[in-house]
């Protein structure tokens, strides 16, 4: 919980400042903002499954350490460049860094607990810790950027992320996981095949993967478009202060929702229903932001959409985790992450083209439509 909280403080606070940096300092266009996300997803797509197999074969702990090293370097490097190609390169490294963490952390805690009934509760508590950490990060890193410079705050957050990786090295123990000691390449291939077959043969997993493909593509595109939309509607307002306030409210509401859901999260239908409701709220927020004509209504729309979209990932992770087994758990979560990255690429490219040809408003309407399709897919699945 402490590690999740600390990582959220750093990477969420860093991204708040970076989202403003990309718009205000680097002056990227709407299509460039979305294309950076697409390039990041391409890099992550290539590395995601190999990273998951490494976690299932060699070590979940050291996968997280590698993630911290790459992430810290990417965070610092982003603050040192301002042209589009260089920013794309640093964001691609940022995407690769997440491949070594996604799935490995969930698989690790699932192994250490060794109690399927407790895992969903712990994952929900971890999401709550992440949301509270996000509040601290938005206020802390955002406040630092306001007092100094955006690039300074970004560099310091990246350096702290490297130190957090050192905390994983000295503070965490990997007790229950047994690495493959012989014929590792052969064992890795077997793990990949078993995980892929598990997904292929499960209607529930296929539905979650398909919905995740759409939802994550929308979430990434929306996260890059809404700062631009808000700045256009209210150019005189300090964006760092404005976005910090919005981010804090989003996280507090999300933490309350997870607190309400926590006692029932182990129920057979809670994750599916929560996923569908979150998609519906996000779709309404995206449509309202597209139609907003002043800053107050636009801010409320962002609170709805950007507050609900992260909850879909929480529910999706718990849903998938309940459908897999320990030997291939990290690999299945990595396959889920591949669906996320593929969604960022395909849906992100589509939204980028629309934003470039028609502007941010039609692009946001398309985001809402894709979320409605995801709701239909989830509702048609069975537990």
TrEMBL record:
Would you say which domain of life the source belongs to?
A: Bacteria
Named from the GO MF annotations, one term is: transmembrane transporter activity
**Record's keyword terms, sorted:** Membrane, Transmembrane, Transmembrane helix
Q: Does the keyword tRNA processing feature in the UniProt annotation?
A: no
Mention any Pfam family matching this sequence: MFS_1
The membrane-spanning stretches of this chain are 33-55, 62-81, 129-147, 153-172, 204-222, 242-261, 273-293, 299-320, 332-354, 360-378
Q: What InterPro entries does the record tag this protein with?
A: MFS, MFS_DHA3_Transporter, MFS_trans_sf
Q: What is this protein's record name?
A: Major Facilitator Superfamily protein
Q: Which source organism does the UniProt entry give?
A: Nonomuraea maritima
């Amino acid at each position: 919980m402490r590690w999740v909280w600390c990582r959220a403080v750093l990477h969420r606070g860093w991204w708040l400042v970076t989202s403003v940096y990309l718009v205000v300092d680097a002056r990227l266009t709407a299509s460039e903002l979305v294309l950076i996300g697409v390039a990041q997803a391409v890099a992550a797509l290539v590395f995601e499954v190999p990273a998951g197999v490494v976690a299932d074969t060699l070590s979940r702990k050291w996968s997280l350490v590698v993630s911290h090293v790459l992430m810290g370097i990417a965070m610092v490097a982003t603050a040192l460049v301002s042209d589009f190609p260089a920013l794309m390169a640093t964001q691609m490294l940022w995407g690769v860094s997440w491949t070594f963490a996604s799935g490995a952390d969930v698989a690790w805690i699932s192994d250490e607990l060794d109690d399927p009934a407790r895992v969903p509760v712990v994952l929900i508590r971890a999401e709550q810790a992440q949301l509270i950490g996000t509040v601290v990060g938005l206020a802390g890193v955002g406040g630092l950027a306001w007092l100094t410079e955006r690039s300074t705050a970004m560099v310091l957050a990246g350096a702290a992320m490297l130190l957090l990786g050192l905390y994983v090295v000295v503070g965490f123990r990997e007790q229950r996981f047994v690495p493959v000691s012989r014929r590792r390449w052969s064992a890795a291939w077997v793990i990949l095949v078993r995980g892929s077959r598990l997904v292929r043969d499960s209607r529930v997993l296929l539905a979650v993967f398909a919905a995740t493909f759409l939802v994550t593509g929308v979430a990434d595109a929306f996260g890059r478009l809404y700062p631009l939309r808000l700045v256009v509607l209210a150019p005189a307002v300090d964006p760092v202060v404005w976005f910090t306030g919005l981010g804090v409210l989003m996280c507090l509401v999300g933490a309350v929702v997870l607190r309400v859901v926590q006692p029932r999260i182990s129920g057979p239908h809670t994750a599916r229903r929560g996923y569908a409701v979150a998609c519906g709220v996000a779709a309404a927020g995206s449509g309202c932001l597209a139609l907003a004509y002043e800053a107050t209504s636009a801010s409320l729309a962002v609170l709805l959409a950007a507050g609900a979209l992260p909850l879909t990932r929480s529910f999706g992770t718990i849903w998938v985790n309940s459908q897999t087994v320990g030997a291939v758990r990290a690999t299945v979560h990595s396959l889920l992450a591949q669906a996320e990255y593929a969604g960022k690429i395909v849906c992100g490219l589509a939204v980028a083209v629309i934003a470039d040809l028609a502007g941010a408003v039609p692009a946001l309407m398309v985001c809402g439509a894709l979320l409605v399709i995801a709701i239909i897919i989830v509702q048609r699945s069975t537990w």
